[in-house]
Design brief:
heterodimer; A: 345 residues; alpha+beta; four-stranded antiparallel sheet; 34% helix; globular; B: 287 residues; alpha/beta; 2 domains; five-stranded mixed sheet; 5 strands; binds iron/sulfur cluster
Amino acid sequence: MLKKISISKISELAAALMDKGLLLAPVKEISGHNFVEIKDPKQVDLDFHNTIASPKAAFFPHKEDFIKYETGKPIDTASVVALNLPPTFLFGARPCDVKSFGIMDIHFIASGIVDPFWKQRREAAVIFGYAFDLEKPAQPEEFYQTLGIGAADPEGSDIFMVKKGGDLLLNSVTPKGEKILTELKILNEGKAADKKYYDEYIKKGKEYKTRSMCLEPGAITKKLEDLFQNTDFWNRVSSACISCGVCTFVCPTCYCFDICDDTLFGHGTRRRVWDACMFTDFTLEASGHNPRTHVYQRLRQKINHKYSYHVRKYGVISCVGCGRCTKYCPVNIDIYSIIEDAMKA
Amino acid sequence: MTDFRQIENNLKKEAKRLLEAGEVAVVLAYGRGYDEKHPMPFAAKTIADVESLVFNEYCNFNMASYLMRYPWGTKIAIAAKAADSRAIIQLVQEEKVRREDLVILGIPAYGMKNQKTNEVVDSKTTGGLYNPVIYDILLGEEIHGQKIVSPYEVLAEYEAMDKEERWAFWKSQMDKCIRCYACRKACPMCYCDPCFIDQNKPRWADKAPQSPGNMMYHLTRFHHLAGRCIDCGECSRACPVDIPLYLFHKKVAKECEEMFGQAAGMKLEDKPVLVDFRVEDSDKILE
Ligand code: SF4
Ligand code: SF4
Ligand code: SF4
Ligand code: SF4
């Protein structure tokens, strides 16, 4: 089912979605766009290339409270936090980021140990994917083409959106998406010409140029395994790294977390917060021993996790080439160049 | 001003000479990144590495941050713009490095640009000096006649706010913080291991990126840098969500300078202002 609406009416569409549930959409902040819970429909702004942080926080918030308790009280007085999620609309996620949700599902659902918080948030959500603007060039950091992801891939979205001049075309990809499209009375019917435009756009999206190299998952996995002990290589590529958490926090496929207790005046909360393998204390053990004390070990872990261990274990590379890690790294470490160097090494 | 290309050539020349003569084990400077606009901090250790050195208007990173990675006594050459040179002085004062182990390759420069915004980095975000305060070899001509703006001028607007407004301002800024700790990691003066925020016993603040913990992290960090921040602006530049940390640091630096008559990292022979007791010191801090 193909519908359309004028982009000038985007806030009306936002208002209609807000009537139905919670809307997460791109909003222009001081330093760039980010997905934000919309309070005022006028905030929604589709004039962006991609957001600073990936939309993973929609399903994997930076902070997720699990249990509330009172200190000194018996354990059975503690309670699990119930989510009670309203229908959630994730509006305007780019194809590479949508692709990342499928990769994250492996860990949080498909691996067999189901994370109820991730699962519930995923189920409550309707994803409105949004094709990149094919008229505009990709940013220098991006490389999703390398990973076989097009700039207008609808897979993974419930509804996929494409810009056509001053209009936004919305096409249903799943039954869930179709249901929402039917209910949104504010939308107009798409015409045959719109359908043609949409189909061609999707096709053209495959050819959209980002940085690209020929990368076969099996080959890079093997290469990284061979390189593992090559400390010179890892020292060289990591020498500038300052061990901050920027690259992992903005990344759509990084999912490490820490579980911690916070108690204030006897009221306790057990929660998870994001953690990062790049932090110096990430692997610090209670004994005081830390198996990854060197910068190179930590960067090696990050690259190997995404391009080697993950492929061995699950058959797919755990990176979608969005380029955020490179773009926001304070010292310009570029994962693409590292992979390229590894292939050549 | 000597143009960037020429500075780059001089940098390569000096690096080569120092490495060849065995005077230093490493040259800390900038190397090629994934494109022109994104050079990277780079440690040249061999003659072959020298060819990869670059210098252009995007070479903002404060190389002094890397000094403490090397074993005590390692001979190091370091490319130092004005702010970097102040960081070096401050680190020498704090006995983190020895002056005699360093060959400082001074770089006088203006028109440096922020790679994210393309804006010229000026006194608003940094100390606003053009010439390194200290150096052994100068890689370009000293800059004179450029307009000097007080690094504290940018505070006017901020100082006009009353207490409530200031609190509201910082609260809204701190709420944006994602606790990636790039600010402390980019800062040449943040070398504590472990940093207070990573400690578990006692735990000084919660780990979640929310109001009380964020405030605790930043207010403590700001104060740990009192009299030590050399105003390079790297913390703010590293921040992925553009929190203007420099404003707070500048405000504290200004108060320190007014109270003790000394700015951080300006003179090798100074003692760090907050560890030095002088009878004539101002009592304003107690008021
Ligand atoms: S590793 Fe970098 S490029 Fe790959 S998905 Fe994460 S942020 Fe994007
Ligand atoms: S963002 Fe850059 S400097 Fe920070 S941990 Fe990642 S690679 Fe290292
Ligand atoms: S606090 Fe910021 S401006 Fe001051 S020395 Fe550290 S990084 Fe530079
Ligand atoms: S760099 Fe910015 S977001 Fe990261 S911890 Fe510092 S202030 Fe917070």
